[in-house]
Amino acid sequence: MSRFYRLVVSCPDRVGIVARVSGFIASQGGSITEASQHSDLATGRFFMRYEIQADSVSLDAEGLRQAFGPIADEFEMRWALYDTALRKRVVLMVSRASHCLVDLLYRWTAGELDCDIVGVISNHDDLRRLVQGHDIPFHHVPVSVDTKAAAFDEVERLVDSVSADCVVLARYMQILPPRLCRRYAGRVINIHHSFLPSFAGAKPYHQAYDRGVKLIGATCHYVTDELDEGPIIEQDIHRISHCHDADDLVRFGRDVEKAVLARGLRWHLQDRVLIHGNKTVVFA
Amino acid sequence: MSRFYRLVVSCPDRVGIVARVSGFIASQGGSITEASQHSDLATGRFFMRYEIQADSVSLDAEGLRQAFGPIADEFEMRWALYDTALRKRVVLMVSRASHCLVDLLYRWTAGELDCDIVGVISNHDDLRRLVQGHDIPFHHVPVSVDTKAAAFDEVERLVDSVSADCVVLARYMQILPPRLCRRYAGRVINIHHSFLPSFAGAKPYHQAYDRGVKLIGATCHYVTDELDEGPIIEQDIHRISHCHDADDLVRFGRDVEKAVLARGLRWHLQDRVLIHGNKTVVFA
Amino acid sequence: MSRFYRLVVSCPDRVGIVARVSGFIASQGGSITEASQHSDLATGRFFMRYEIQADSVSLDAEGLRQAFGPIADEFEMRWALYDTALRKRVVLMVSRASHCLVDLLYRWTAGELDCDIVGVISNHDDLRRLVQGHDIPFHHVPVSVDTKAAAFDEVERLVDSVSADCVVLARYMQILPPRLCRRYAGRVINIHHSFLPSFAGAKPYHQAYDRGVKLIGATCHYVTDELDEGPIIEQDIHRISHCHDADDLVRFGRDVEKAVLARGLRWHLQDRVLIHGNKTVVFA
Amino acid sequence: MSRFYRLVVSCPDRVGIVARVSGFIASQGGSITEASQHSDLATGRFFMRYEIQADSVSLDAEGLRQAFGPIADEFEMRWALYDTALRKRVVLMVSRASHCLVDLLYRWTAGELDCDIVGVISNHDDLRRLVQGHDIPFHHVPVSVDTKAAAFDEVERLVDSVSADCVVLARYMQILPPRLCRRYAGRVINIHHSFLPSFAGAKPYHQAYDRGVKLIGATCHYVTDELDEGPIIEQDIHRISHCHDADDLVRFGRDVEKAVLARGLRWHLQDRVLIHGNKTVVFA
Q1: By CB atoms within 10 Å of each CB, which of C44, C167, C278, D13 scores lowest?
Q2: Domains within chain D, CATH numbers bracketed
């Protein structure tokens, strides 16, 4: 696998940004293999993502960052330069349902998810064997009404102890406390089992069944301290009919959920998702 | 085009319904070309729709109805027997946007919608020429805050004067008064330009844009006196991304709206939609 | 899980079939939970599938079969009556790629596939651990140009030794000999990684890439002795663009393949697929 | 509607292209509203499309072209700079089926297709009224086996007389002679009513019906002198089942055809489609 630098930028839009950034990269000898830009006309903000072959540049990542600093300052950029040699460290959080976990573990072993899965945390012990079979540490952190605060202190400790870059709620049925949502802002990805904003909250398939909708969906989004209200990364749907009962909806839903979560996570790991207020720019 | 009788039934589920109904049809010599059944396990209600070649039966529609009456009574059926020789009479209601109207008129001339379009009512005069070019009467009934009551009296008079079986709100931007919703219950079809229950009410595409969803949708449903809450007949979606502004959403939305409305209306005209509480059984 | 009898019939179409069959079921006290019929107007053939609650009938499966025999004879039916208490016995055949196998094993453990997986045969040893981790016998039967005949004798012996009802080629990259195709006709299901009839034969994703198509697909079909020409059960597609190279097509393809195979197999196991010449009727 | 310049380029890939082009645009004060690039790793070719606000640049289109010339030469570019003030001139060719024509005319009047429709040519007279109702010249050029050569001379004369930039075969059922295909290479767009390369040639829906596929499709492509083999711009599909006869396939097909053609044509008119050998890069 080739090594790349990924330069991800957002800033107020104005003439000359692309020229300045691409000129900088060219001056370093950088070979650009993928380039994406977006001008948001409503807010006047500009977004870009460049993928640069690492071995085409003489500076290392830190050197590039320092050299790029003055340009970033001049254009008031929020920016990051990622080195794909440093794989993101991911913690998965699950409950009892295994479909998203099985899917993510398959994709990870197949090389579709470019990250290190450094641990799985669950409030139940059911999926221990599956996780350990992939040589990944499994942490059972039970959560009850009384122990909630202590449990999430433990979750925080575990996440911090492995220096996780990203936490994935892969059908983790608990709500993260607001403090953690804010502390890990932009780094916690959830899969919600409805086509948000429809059917936020609990038991969305049963809500969908009761309303008699003809499509069910799933939504991958960043977690914020407002439940099911964070920036949406990806959504998809599955067609249903009167033939299907609530159990069928759950079954179809599993397929949509795992597909949507896998796409959203893959894009996040490839630094393709830029948060913009409560929305996302996804350079898919 | 062949002529058919369509027998549409719902009743409490129990052993022997299909045997009794199909036995009755066979005893009349009836050749069944399409048969659909559904048992709703949650409510214990049974639904069926049979399509029978008219010339295979010696009785006429009224004769069949009388012969079938005792069976219907025995099983406590809600039922109807339709004769496709009597085409449904449809009134379209539109405002200024023409996309659904153009689409329905094309499908009607192409033979996809088996009905007579007996009139178009609009609160604006813009689409008069298009309608009259298809030799369909056009009625301009302006609606303002002050004239609303009188306007809808006029709408009611027009609908009744043509003995309409079905009223289609093809992007008619006014809300029907509750009295008409109730009077024409199960006979008024609306296209809402969102994936209900998301974004009910006004300007759904702008709501969708603001929320940052990745799919937009449209919903075809029966009108009830609760706005955007009636039984859903059909829904579909279109994928969007950060590249698309609210105008693009409107443009994509037009395609979804007209497709969803056309499918929903076609099924309604073919007596494929059975209302069941606030849900539908669609034998598509 | 409730126990059902499934009556699956095809016969020349004529008046009274439904009445006769449903009358028979009613006379046995049978409660029908799902009923599907189809009249193929082009060929004059009729197809039906009834699902009957087993405990609503006093006869057992064999008794029902004997009682139904005279009706079947009278209408010249090809028919079968299945008892869901007897789960179908399935052999999976794989090569090195694990995506379909992982997916089927997940669905099987989740209860989505109502069968016994009685063995996995592979021409490579790579997937042994995965299979044995699910407590399923794994058989490594290498195939080379020289050993082909002996290898397929061994495959046949293994399939027969477990009394398999169904063989699934879950990305098994070898071609079954015509003799086995004929012997197991209607019982061998393959997943082909293209939208047949496009790109039959080898390396379909590379063929698709070279042709510059904008959608790739997968096809689940019964195997016949004409390669990639058997009756199609299910197909689906995934959208691609110029951004995607042949490796991306392979990656997207995996998702389509496993979804299409899982749906096709599920329908087969539920006796929803009726073969009709080189086509299928699928009561999905 | 704002006025834009569109710079569309392909050239051998090397370091510094984006820097050079965007530097040039910035030096002219150009405000870039949309930018797309693609590096084809298999062939080492680079593609780009920039949309520039016209009033942000002091030079006019011709001045820009002259200023850009040396850069284009240096990088061996194939390129064009379009001015959206000069709308493309489009000739539609149709036969008897009206669905694509009705759809394109609606989209054109709704402002979705940024072009002048300067004429419609048909080998039948059926659609004259529809066309003339939109104040577009209609030309009836009958084609028979004997008159084919003369007829296509007349077609050529008509296309040339209106200085057409683009010819759209909107279900024109005749095959253009190779000479015209070559003369108008890259400017003639066809809609084929199958998911190519499946079912090339005549009556694709009947071919699809006979093969028993579960999806039908349509393909929008540039016409070359090899029938149904030109570069594909867009494709889509519609799900079908055993319930649908060949007429249903035709009906569903109409919806797919018109959607696919409209998308392909819109992208072409916006200079989003770059031909690359027998494939396309579509900056959609």
Answers
A1: C44
A2: 4-83 (3.30.70.260), 88-282 (3.40.50.170)
